């Protein structure tokens, strides 16, 4: 009895009883990447925040898929997203997504609740962090923010000064897992420490940050939670020295001292951070001398210096996201549209990291992201993006029918 295989391709093949060689069906690269989205959680968030209430044309899922397509394909405009989604409509059908219109997508980005995408990112972030982190011991988190340039059309919520508008993305980043664990968006004129005070604290973790988070009250809160703090002294901050520790000669560490911060702040306010701290002076390769502050009195000076040096990882993360995804040019000007685009960009980053972890052929995250972009709607396995398409082998025992 002949066996008949009808695939989604344009070729159907009949096999005789002499042998069976099934034609392998491949999903598109986009389809494989979107499998990492917890759609049940997404549907729950849409229902919880009534994102699809009174919606007739474009569902929140269609909006989400279109915005993800724009991120992964590096689309520069809503018109380009509209054309790209329409051109691959047949392959998006299996995702349950529909074509989009530029004006409808613009309205959705302006009016749909951005919290749906922000909470989806938070859920995926926690799940990805558990899967990507190698060990929970000695957890080190890096805190920083990066600026996003906006134009005058965003002046109603993001004005910084005359003619200058912008926003900031505040991130807690786990360098060991190469994964953010927290992100928030604010206008540029919001102080970094204001957002930091709203960030979740993991007791016992190490937090590394720069001078933008110079706040004794917040430091005291971290210290009470058993967290290790690594940051820099301001130039005008004195240290009441209790003990001078020995340091290796001819090394980058110039001095290592234990002491107390000033008991009073400006306007004679009481300093809530009264614990002893370390001051490790380090000379960089450029000749600059850094005064590093840490509340760990037991670690070596070299370990403290190395922890502060790890701040460079979050700078690389921001650079990677800005070079690879779309958060330099915004498709909408309202605060809601900007928040949605940033959240979708960070979700795209997580999807790329999770998809890359399923294969071993491509080790470079940047190379993997570029290969995904050029093969986004092709039917290829993720571990074969660097290989040419397999040429079907002919078999005289097979009869092939081809139609258009």
Quick tags:
404 residues, 10-stranded mixed β-sheet, 3-stranded antiparallel β-sheet, disordered N terminus
What features would you describe in this structure?
It is a single chain. The protein is an alpha+beta fold and 404 residues long. Helix content is 36%, strand content 20%. The chain contains 14 helices and 13 strands. The strands form two sheets. Strands 3, 4, 5, 6, 7, 8, 9, 10, 11 and 12 form a ten-stranded mixed beta sheet that branches. Strands 1-2-13 form a three-stranded antiparallel beta sheet, with no helix packed on it. A hairpin with a 7-residue loop joins strand 9 and strand 10. Helix 3 packs across helix 4. It is elongated.
The end-to-end distance, rounded to whole angstroms, is 27 Å
User: Oligomeric form of this entry?
Assistant: single chain
- Assign an overall shape: elongated
- The percent of residues in helical segments reads 25-40%
Overall pLDDT? 85
Main sheet attributes: strand count, strand direction, barrel closure: 10 strands, mixed
Radius of gyration, in Å, reads 26 Å
Order of helices and strands: EEHHHHHHHEHEEEHEHEEEEEHHHHE
H/I helix tally: 14
Structural class of the helix and strand makeup?
Answer: alpha+beta
Strand element count: 13
Percent strand: 15-25%
Which regions are unreliable across 5 or more consecutive residues at pLDDT < 50? 1-18
Describe this structure in a few short sentences.
By secondary structure, this protein is an alpha+beta fold.
């Amino acid at each position: 009895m002949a066996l008949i295989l009808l695939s989604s391709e344009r070729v159907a093949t009949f096999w005789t009883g002499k042998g069976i060689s099934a034609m392998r069906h491949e999903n598109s690269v986009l389809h494989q990447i979107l499998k990492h989205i917890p759609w049940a959680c997404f549907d729950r968030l849409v229902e919880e925040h009534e994102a699809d209430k009174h919606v007739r044309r474009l569902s929140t899922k269609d909006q989400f898929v279109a915005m993800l397509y724009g991120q992964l394909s590096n689309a520069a405009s809503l018109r380009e997203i509209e054309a790209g989604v329409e051109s691959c409509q047949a392959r998006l059908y299996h995702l349950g997504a529909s074509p989009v219109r530029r004006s409808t997508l613009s309205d959705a980005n302006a009016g749909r609740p951005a919290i749906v995408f922000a909470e989806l990112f938070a859920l995926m972030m926690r799940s990805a962090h558990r899967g990507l982190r190698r060990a929970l011991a000695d957890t080190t988190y890096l805190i920083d923010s990066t600026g996003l340039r906006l134009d005058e059309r965003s002046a109603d919520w993001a004005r910084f000064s005359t003619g200058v508008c912008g926003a900031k993305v505040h991130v807690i980043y786990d360098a060991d897992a190469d994964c953010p664990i927290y992100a928030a968006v604010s206008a540029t004129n919001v102080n970094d420490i204001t957002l930091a005070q709203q960030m979740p604290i993991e007791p016992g973790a190490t937090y590394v940050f720069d001078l933008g988070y110079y706040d004794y009250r917040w430091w005291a809160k971290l210290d009470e939670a058993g967290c290790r703090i690594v940051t820099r002294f301001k130039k005008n901050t004195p240290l009441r020295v209790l003990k001078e520790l020995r340091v290796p000669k001819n090394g980058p560490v110039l001095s290592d001292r234990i002491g107390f911060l000033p008991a009073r702040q400006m306007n004679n306010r009481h300093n809530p951070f009264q614990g002893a701290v370390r001051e490790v002076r380090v000379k960089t390769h450029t000749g600059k001398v850094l005064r590093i502050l840490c509340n760990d009195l037991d670690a070596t000076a070299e370990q403290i210096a190395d922890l502060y040096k790890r701040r460079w990882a979050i700078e690389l993360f921001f650079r990677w996201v800005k070079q690879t995804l779309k958060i330099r040019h915004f498709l909408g000007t309202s605060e809601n549209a900007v928040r949605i685009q940033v959240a979708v960009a960070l979700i795209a980053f997580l999807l790329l990291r999770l998809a890359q972890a399923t294969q071993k052929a491509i080790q470079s995250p940047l190379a993997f992201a570029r290969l995904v972009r050029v093969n986004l709607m092709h039917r290829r396995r993720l571990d074969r993006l660097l290989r040419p398409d397999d040429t079907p082998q002919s078999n005289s025992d097979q009869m092939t029918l081809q139609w258009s």
